[in-house]
Amino acid sequence: MFGGFYLAVPVISVENVGMMFNLNNEKIDNLKEYIIKMLTGKLHYNEFWALKDINFKVEKGDRLGVMGLNGAGKSTLLKVIAGVMKPTQGTVKVKGVIAPMLELGAGFDPNYTGAENIFLYGATMGYSRKFIQSKYDEIIEFSELNEFIDVPIKNYSSGMKARLGFAIATAVSPEVLILDEVLSVGDAKFKKKSEAKLRGMIDTGITVLFVSHNTEQVRKICNKAIILQKGQIVASGTADEVCNKYTEMIKK
Amino acid sequence: MTEVKNNSAPQKKKYFKNFLKYRFLLWELIKKNIKLQYRNSILGVFWTFLQPLLTMIVLVLVFGQVFGRNIPGVVNYPTYLLCGRLIYEFYSQATKKAMRSILSNATIVKKVYVPKYIYPLSNVTSTFITFAISLSVLVFVMAYFMIFTDTTMHLTPYVFLAIVPILILFILCIGVGMLLATLEVFFRDIEYLYDVFCMLLFYMTPVFYDINQMHLNHTVKLILMANPLYSIISMFRSCVLFGEMWNWNWFYYALGISVFFLIVGFLAFYKKQDKFILHI
């Protein structure tokens, strides 16, 4: 029991996580179909495990790259960790504040102005109005949207929206940062700026989960990595080792 | 199978703490609903007053001659009608908005963790605030009839008790709203069915008539009285129009049904919320 004190405390621990979806050829979303299928006994699903027996721990300051081909379960894994989905099996424990950057601008309302959306988006991420108020100027300055801040978001270009979303999401100082290929935001100039900002955040020693296909980026950002294939971890280790394996895997 | 736990989707014990964390979101959403409702209309928030007033005039024109003459104890038909119409309208608006709330916020629910009950709750609350503002129309209409006609209103201190049926109505709307929001995620048909049901409910609720004025057989009367809106509207009218204490049976019945729906709504929502993401 006391031995525990000497072990590094994992920030994220994923134990035996499995995520099952019921796949049906046709989606039943109306009552009539449901009743007919139920009465005629045609209501059966194909089980599909998007994640199976996933086990890993991420310690404080670790930067874990999650790699894998399309449909390997990367996004599902991140959603389970972020608490968006509940795993069918197993446990996920996360210590501290998570800042998910799964999709920037998901909490925006198109009829709201940029300024109003800052507060709405911040609240969606669970921050208090006071806290967002204290970051307000910083967000506007970083997003370079000063003159458009009182314009409804529906009139923004997609690049402007992404810039605002990025600025809000990175204005906080989370303990865990989840990145799902969001490094290419806006034009080249803003891209450089956003990369520098992320790098600054990563260098403060926060824990990062980074999903990417790009081995170069993973090598640059992460110190550890895993490869997912058909919902299972097929390789794990240091970023360099795993990236080499991934390159081999793709060649096949 | 191992126990399923997730720190960011807390279990019952952490619910309260989580609610505190997300109370800003609740507040922001309530504000957003109210602000955006009339943003692009010229008369803006004035519609909150104008709309019930205009529908009251229409209903008086349509039903006034037939039903307005012999409601026992009612001295003024327009105010009688307005009381019922305000309460019915709040119920139907609040529950309909709550019903669609999870689906219309699907993009957020799919991407970020938020306590999902915030969405039906914020919709019912914002509709409630608009409803509270629109109650001033009633004050205005009553004042008009007192000043410009010889109608005597039975204004007594009981008028302050009108808050009780309003709060019961609020509880009812949250319960029904949560239940509908849950059903809507799995069966989109509910939306259309509920529209029809609300129309039926409008005629079943004594908005423009009085149950005792109609010559109904006992069973039909019982069915009409089983409608919790009947009890709530009757309580409200007792306080505001007749200046007297309500019939306590209405109180027990309305409160009982409302708490029942609140529990059922919350349980259904709580049990099914983790499955929402797979269906939206």
Q: Summed up, what is this model?
A:
Chain A is built from 8 helices and 9 strands. By secondary structure, chain A is of the alpha/beta class. In chain A, helix 3 (114-124) crosses helix 4, helix 3 crosses helix 5 and helix 7 runs antiparallel to helix 8.
Main sheet makeup of chain B: none
What is the H-and-E element order of chain A? EHEEHEEHHHEHEHEEH
Number of helices of chain B: 11
Mean model confidence by pLDDT of chain B? 88
Keywords:
heterodimer; A: 252 residues; alpha/beta; six-stranded mixed sheet; 9 strands; 27% strand; B: 280 residues; mainly alpha; 11 helices
Report on the structure:
- The complex is a heterodimer of chains A (252) and B (280).
- Chain A is globular and about 60 Å long.
- Chain A has helices at residues 31-39, 74-82, 114-124, 129-143, 158-171, 188-203, 215-221, 239-251; strands at residues 10-23, 46-59, 63-68, 89-94, 98-101, 176-180, 207-211, 224-229, 232-238.
- In chain A, helix 3 packs across helix 4 and helix 3 (114-124) packs across helix 5 (158-171).
- Chain A is an alpha/beta fold and 252 residues long.
- Chain B has helices at 15-21, 23-37, 47-67, 77-104, 106-111, 118-148, 163-186, 189-204, 218-226, 228-240, 248-279; one strand at 5-6.
- Chain B starts with a strand and ends with a helix.
- In chain B, helix 2 (23-37) crosses helix 6, helix 6 packs antiparallel against helix 7 (163-186) and helix 7 (163-186) runs antiparallel to helix 10.
- The A-B interface holds A 15-16, 21-22, 29-32, 34, 80, 82-95, 98, 100, 102-103, 106-107, 109, 111-112, 116, 119-120, 122-129 and B 1-9, 21-22, 24-25, 27-29, 32, 35-36, 39, 107-114, 186-190, 193, 274, 277-279.
- Strand 4 (89-94) of chain A pairs parallel with strand 1 of chain B, so a sheet runs across the interface.
